[in-house]
Amino acid sequence: MASEIKFSSxxxxxxxxxxKRKDVFDYLKVRGSHIYCLQDVHWxxxxxxxxxxxxxxxxxxxxxxxxxxxxAILFNDNFNxxxxxxxxxxxxxxxxxxxxxxxYEVTLVVLYGPxxxxxxxxxxxxxxxxxxxxxxxxxxxxxxxxxxxxxDSLNYLHTNNPKSRQVVHxxxxxxxxxxxxxxFHPITKxxxxxxxxxxxxxxxxxxxxxxxxxxxxTTATITPGYRSDHFMINSSFRLGQMVTGKGFWKxxxxxxxxxxxxxxxxxxxDETITEYACLPYNIDxxxxxxxxxxxxxxxxxxxxxxxxxxxxxxxxSYSSFKKKSEIKREVYxxxxxxxxxxxxxxxxxxxxxxDSLEKELQHLRxxxxxxxxxxxxxxxVDEGEKPSKFFLNLEKRNHVSKLICHLTNDDNEQIxxxxxxxxxxxxxxxxxxxxxxxxxxxxxxxxxxWNCLNRLFS
Length: 458
Description:
Pfam families: Exo_endo_phos. It contains 12 helices and 17 strands. With 458 residues, it is α+β, with helices and mostly antiparallel strands. Strands 3-4-2-1-15-14 form a 6-stranded mixed sheet. It has a 6-stranded mixed sheet with strand order 5-6-7-8-13-10. The chain has a 3-stranded antiparallel sheet with strand order 9-12-11, with no helix packed on it. A hairpin with a 5-residue loop joins strand 5 and strand 6. It is elongated.
């Protein structure tokens, strides 16, 4: 069952005052979001216990001082979540938590970007996300960097923090992150920070979401903030287990170099010939007859299709068995290497044994990585030019792009459950291929149509 989880983020412009803090907390709880990401809260380390009591739910804080910085993640008590890891930087402008909910593992990073051009800060963000290494990632906060100077700023004389902006774009590319607001509103100009005199506006606050979560996003909005010069940004995610089918089977060319597979195919060919050969043949001597001289009790085309079907069945079965065997072998090698290292000594035989295990493990991993190169559909690969993570992320992006997490039907209604998506998809293509387009006419009757086509030969 899918659950919709709403995130809200706000630069609070200081919540050190108890009165303002109580007022803002009441305002946030009324909004009903599940997770609040707050920046510039002005909470020092002595206030953590007080904040936790006042909020009444799980909260994680990277403290700043009583008049600057500080970021926090506040979890509402209206949904189930398990936090597995936490990281705070010493400056109080970044906090990262890894959590699990609805069978999703997500790294959530909340940041308050430096006012100065400090690209090293955003390099730190990338390092933390890579270290957490969860399947999904959300990065949100007041970045103090605009992604597009034309669309995201107004009345700026100069481009602020240009080096940081370059690093943020690089981070988005390396980690496969997308600006949720711009995905939903590609041509809309909206701003999250405003200076009244002289008037200056910019979109400094935004969500960056990994590709694996992008299809689960249902809304991306900018709403008025409260007791702050920043607007609040909101995104909702419809999280639930996506059940995928078996997909299309594709032949793995590496099997052609597998001697065991070659033997299986030859046996399938012999068995199929024996099964469909005409009755007068002596079965014991049938396979000694040249194959192009054997007559079958079905036509040649049907025999060929049957042979391909039989080979395909055996290939799928063998491929599945081989993959399971390789996974089992990899687990054994990892455990055995760990066991040998635990008793490692100057014994030369143990050392050689351990080296052989590590070489075999590396060979298995190289085969897996080579498959990722192919499945990521990279047209040209220069090994060593890009790290393996590039190809693994690209493969994951290609997989995600095949999923349909929600549809909009003809009545402009959103469909999220998989049964409804399948039914709507079926009805769409049924209508598409059963309808006659009266606007199309016979191309042969179009004057001059064929004469305007480019031809290889005259």
